[in-house]
Amino acid sequence: MTQSLTGRMINGFDIADADELDASSRDLVERRGRVLSTGYKLLYARPLHFVRGEGRYLIDADGHPYFDAYNNVTSLGHCHPVVVDAVTRQVAKLNTNTRYLHEGLVDYAERLADTHDRALTRAIFTCTGSESIDLALRIARTATGKPGVVVTENAYHGMTMAAAEISPSLGTGVPLGAHVRVVPAPARGATASEVGRQLARAVAAAAADLERHGIGFGAFVADSLFSSDGLAPEPAGFLREVRNVVRDAGGLYIADEVQPGFARTGDAMWGYQRHGIVPDVVAMGKPMGNGLPIAGVVATDAALDDFGRNARYFNTFGGNTVSIAAAAAVLSVIEEDGLLENSRVVGARLLDRLRVTAARTVMLGDVRGAGLYLGVDVVDALGQPDGERALDIVNRLRERRFLISAMGPHGSVLKIRPPLTTTADEADELNDALADVLDEITGGR
Amino acid sequence: MTQSLTGRMINGFDIADADELDASSRDLVERRGRVLSTGYKLLYARPLHFVRGEGRYLIDADGHPYFDAYNNVTSLGHCHPVVVDAVTRQVAKLNTNTRYLHEGLVDYAERLADTHDRALTRAIFTCTGSESIDLALRIARTATGKPGVVVTENAYHGMTMAAAEISPSLGTGVPLGAHVRVVPAPARGATASEVGRQLARAVAAAAADLERHGIGFGAFVADSLFSSDGLAPEPAGFLREVRNVVRDAGGLYIADEVQPGFARTGDAMWGYQRHGIVPDVVAMGKPMGNGLPIAGVVATDAALDDFGRNARYFNTFGGNTVSIAAAAAVLSVIEEDGLLENSRVVGARLLDRLRVTAARTVMLGDVRGAGLYLGVDVVDALGQPDGERALDIVNRLRERRFLISAMGPHGSVLKIRPPLTTTADEADELNDALADVLDEITGGR
Q1: Contact (Cβ atoms closer than 8 angstroms) between residue A9 and residue A393
Q2: pLDDT tens-digit profile of A53-68?
Q3: Which residue of A has its CA nearest to B111?
Q4: Which is deepest, A43, A351, A413, B212, by most CB within 10 Å?
Q5: How would you class B118 by CB atoms within 10 Å of its CB: exposed for 0-12, middle for 13-18, buried for 19 or more?
Q6: Cα distance between residue B44 and residue B394, in whole Å
Q7: Which residues contact A290 (CB under 8 A, 6 or more apart)?
Q8: Cα–Cα distance between A105 and A100 in angstroms, integer?
Q9: Per its UniProt record, what PROSITE patterns does this chain match (chains A, B) (predicted)?
Q10: Residue pLDDT, tens place only, A234-282
Q11: How far from the centroid of its chain's Cα atoms is residue A423's Cα?
Q12: Under a CB-based contact definition with an 8 Å cutoff, are residues B414 and B231 in contact?
């Protein structure tokens, strides 16, 4: 079993290896090193230098196409023509803020609300998932008067100070807030009611502990897929009991839908819907504008009431006319091209194929997923998480021009997220590449 | 003297007045009311519904052009062709994040660093000014180990939880953090050394108070123009003593350049440069991409060292390829079209003209500004701040299709920010419109 990677970036380039790069990449790496914060990291043992994007491909400076099965931002594929067209037209026409009337903003807010549970009536637009989580926390604190937050043990919720304080996966260099309690990630391989009961009990205990310390329980925040905890999509429904416990303890349930949202899971537009629950606040981000910065929250009237009345909130770029045009195009493409259904069908096929591949080797353990968000456990001879091996697989796939990464507390879970437009053949291509890499490793190459 | 407006939005539309709107605006207002947070506000007593932007004009649904002398986001003018072209080309080619190599990112970071003092070597990109301030606070807390922050009494620094906690102008609905101390805004009408000494003394006392409470002094944060405090541009240089006090007390100096940055003040690219100081961290935002969401910080090596090593920071959309293309175009236009010089020259002319106008009426008091950021005190018969009159002037100008707003703790300072491209004739046009409005009021119309 490898050491926990919590806090270190999974699959990051080590600058000590810069000498092994080609001249042009080395030059860029060195210039980055001088002018950007040392906190900036590159992906993969050999970083990539892309100059063009088209559908599922990112194309490097030498013209080589890479199958981008990692990117959940451009989830319609790179440079999707409908989004490009919407942005191109809007940026030349008008780009302004939400303090003037504009149909685009209102139309989009209505369409977005229609995809959510009917209790989630009101939207606020921001620019990033971090801002959405941060805003959700402010809403919860205002509504409950209590700052305490409960999250899972390797959660990641964002980069603002308030979001980083509830993100244990950032590691010991980023202290958790004194108002934060962590609970174990959902258990695996049990029934929905068992998983749910266990998680619910832990959340109830954490909430009680916050009350006992005089901090008070304000909110439970969870990524409905538990991505950074290593992916826990199944069995759908296990969040029901947790949701009830949160309500009973007087806190708000904040669904972090930055990863599972916008049809990624195949079963529903939103991850919480797979579980049959209704959160108080939902935070959205990443794929919302297929790459244009736009994010936001929707919330119930009750949750937003105090905040809306007492706390002026104006986000200069949040809901700007161009980002809204991109977001509206994304919703249209998801709907018109049936991408929710495609995510479900192609995701299920890829899950099956990956399970067949995993059954052929001792290196792979459990394979799980919802729609086109899939995780594969990489394990050592004792069946324990093997982050080093996972990293090796990720980098060998990169050499074959397939982009995935790894997740989980040990970085041992292959993180596979091809675009929502992936076809059955493309899914097979991805699985075949993984099978080839495993053969390569087995063959000692 | 009118009541302090701190906490209420200045120049906001009152939804009780919806009946007075035309049918299409009323419909949009009602739909906004149903689907957006009640916290969303519209500008002006009669909200505006724009459908197009071109240069200094915003054009409403009836085809009427409004001179936008309020917008410091699209500070090159609306839909500037160079920016539109850069975005149009990049969005069709590649939009990805900073974890791959890309020349655009590195080129821009280098060009941006070149506009700053040479000690400010390293950049981090975010999406909004709020994220930049929030990040600056995280950097300061990591570098000093102390959370205490000192700000001015009506400061506004952003909308994340951490930024809102240091923004007294948001009012009592948004509590200040227990780690926050406020000092009076810079005095008016004194010499640089007097203003500086007064502010420095207050900052030193606040820093000592933070230490006395065991919180510790981590940072002083100030908008180099003190916009929300009512604008205090002069005399340049008064921040020098403050800067020294902050250093002596062991905190970081965070310059909030979201308002004064990118040539707005005419004297220098950055507001802090007018004062001859070098901050530890600089937060940038608004006009950086002429409307595309992009923002960031630059910092000294010493300030960033701990944070860069210990705290992973990845902002999904921060420094994305398309926003960087927009930002690079903005820098090019500022440089190639001599907009810093234009801001200085035309700003000085507008300041002169506004002073002549102010001298003709008892309604206006002090007129001040730096470059194309100008403020005019609106006063009552006793010379006290008159926010109601200011609002009346703002709304009468809006009826004449000139857009400005008001600022300051009483909302009594006219806030005038025409684009950096404003010509002398256009400046005169703006001043003439104000003079006409004053005549109209004097004539009892």
Answers
A1: no
A2: 999 999 999 999 999 9
A3: A35
A4: A413
A5: exposed
A6: 8
A7: A73, A74, A75, A76, A80, A83, A326, A329, A330
A8: 10
A9: AA_TRANSFER_CLASS_3 (PS00600)
A10: 999 999 999 999 999 999 999 999 999 999 999 999 999 999 999 999 9
A11: 22
A12: no
Q: Which residues have a Cβ under 8 Å from the Cβ of B384 and sit 6 or more positions away?
A: B1
Q: How far apart (Å, rounded) are the C-alpha atoms in residues B111 and A28?
A: 15
Q: Is the pLDDT of residue B1 over 70?
A: no
Tell me the three state secondary structure of residue A210: helix
Inter-chain contacts counted by CB atoms under 8 A, chains A and B? 331
Set of chain B residues whose Cβ sits within 8 Å of the Cβ of A285: 316
Residues of B in contact with A287 (CB under 8 A): none
Q: Which pTM does this prediction carry?
A: 0.97
User: How does pLDDT run across B196-208, given as a tens digit for each residue?
Assistant: 999 999 999 999 9
CATH of domain B54-78+339-442: 3.90.1150.10
Contact A128 B127 (CB under 8 A): yes
How far, CA to CA in Å, does A19 sit from each of A16, A287, B406? Answer: 7, 35, 56
State both tokens at B5: 């407006």
Beta strand pairing call for B281-284 and B295-299: antiparallel
Is residue B224's pLDDT more than 90? yes
Residue B220, beta-bridge partner list? B150, B253
DSSP state for residue A107 in the 8-state scheme: H
Residue B364's alpha-carbon distances to B57, B261, B377, in angstroms, are 26, 27, 6
For residue B438, which of B348, B353, B343, B349 has the smallest C-alpha distance?
A: B353
Q: In the 8-state DSSP scheme, what is residue B193?
A: H
Residue-wise pLDDT for B233-245, tens only, equals 999 999 999 999 9
Tell the burial category of A348 from Cβ atoms under 10 Å away from its Cβ (0-12, 13-18, 19+). middle
What six digits make up the tokens of B71? 């917008």
- The ipTM (two decimal places) reads 0.97
Cα–Cα distance, B324 to B330 (Å, whole number): 10
Domain boundaries of chain A, sorted by first residue: 54-78+339-442, 81-337
Name the helix (H) or strand (E) containing A433. Answer: helix A424-442
Is the fold of B54-78+339-442 the same as that of B81-337?
Answer: no
For residue A71, give the DSSP letter.
-
Put simply, the answer to whether B50 touches A127 (Cβ < 8 Å) is no
State yes or no: cis peptide before B235, omega within 30 of 0.
Answer: yes
Full strand arrangement of the beta sheet holding A57-60: A50-54, A57-60, A65-68, A402-403
Q: What is the pLDDT of residue B123?
A: 98
Rounded Cα distance, B22 and B28, in Å: 10
Name chain B contacts of A137, Cβ cutoff 8 Å: 161
3-state class of B411 per DSSP? coil
User: Residue A15's pLDDT band (boundaries 50, 70, 90)?
Assistant: confident
Distance of CA B116 to the CA centre of its chain: 18
CA separation for the pair A361, A438 (Å, rounded) = 8
Cα A42 vs. chain centroid, distance in angstroms? 18
Inter-residue contact B71 to A95 (CB < 8 Å): no
Q: Regarding the domain delimited by B81-337, which CATH topology (the fold level of the hierarchy) does it fall under?
A: Aspartate Aminotransferase; domain 2 (3.40.640)
Q: CA A373, A379, A385: angle at the middle one, nearest 5?
A: 80
- In this prediction, residue B411 carries a pLDDT of 97
Contact B173 A311 (CB under 8 A): yes
The nearest CA of chain A is from the CA of B77 a distance in Å of 11
Residues of B in contact with A113 (CB under 8 A): 35
* Of the listed ranges A19-28, A290-299, A316-325, the one predicted with least confidence: A19-28
CB A221 within 8 A of CB A136: yes
Q: ∠ CA(A60), CA(A64), CA(A66), 5° rounding?
A: 80
* Bridge partners for B374 per DSSP: B369, B416
